[in-house]
Give the backbone structure.
Amino acid sequence: MQHFVKTSIIPEQYGELFNYLFDYRQESDYRDLFVPDPDKILPLLSQAEELLDVITDKLAE
């Protein structure tokens, strides 16, 4: 993702989102009995959908 943000293929805001989501995923993979906090996750859903739309559009180009 870093390459795509540095070359402005993906807007910087999505790079930060991707890093946050990746870290959160890592935490859930390696912590026993991990329970996500809905107050942290639910607001990110629309942003994650936007990121998927941006990536899909770039792949279609």
In short: The mean pLDDT is 89. Residues 1-60 form one domain. The chain has one domain: 1-60. The radius of gyration is 13 Å.
